Amino acid sequence: MGKYYDNSIVPDHLRRNYDVYDRIKKLNIEMGSFDEDVKSLKGAGISGLVFHESGLVYLSGHGVGPGQMYDDPDRIKEGQNAAEWVAGSMIRRLHWGLTCGGEGGDLNDVIYTVKAIGMVVSTDVAFDGGPAVMNGFSQQWQSVFGGGKGAFAVDGEDVNYGGVHARSAIGGFTGRFSIEPEIIVAIPPELSKAIIENRGWIFPLPPAMLEKVRADRG
Hints:
Helix content: 25-40%
Number of strands: 6
């Protein structure tokens, strides 16, 4: 496990006993590279991640998918696939946000997941499939961090429940995509403070800090 996770407040009966990167590999989630995923904040209007000294990490939403959702099983499945993909994309972003500065943390230091919101695009006033579409996101998240709806659960049980989250999933938005999820996770406060003290609370990185991080990596 992550060195910060090992010293966290997680009770023994909820403690993770597997490496999340093993699950990521089995799920074929692409994790990218430093050069691809660690960018400058120059000119950006929003951040992808914000670290709080309490240990909360806020991930901005990401809109994906083929377009408007409506109550048809095939269309719902397309939305679920898009939601699953964006879960992997956000896990990738979180990985680089946690690791790029060399503070010693990684995805194994995620203690638990706090809250997810899924905004599902549909102008059909009778549409009630928003939660079903968002399930693609939640199930993929649980597959990595633990939960009874994840790919590694057996009879509704997993060895850890760090991916289970409070959630809202609502439809009625406009846009040329299907769903925009966002999520909040908890990491050990010691890790969050180390990140903030070393490089700041925001990811992508301010330009000067990006150059420093690159230089430190050699």
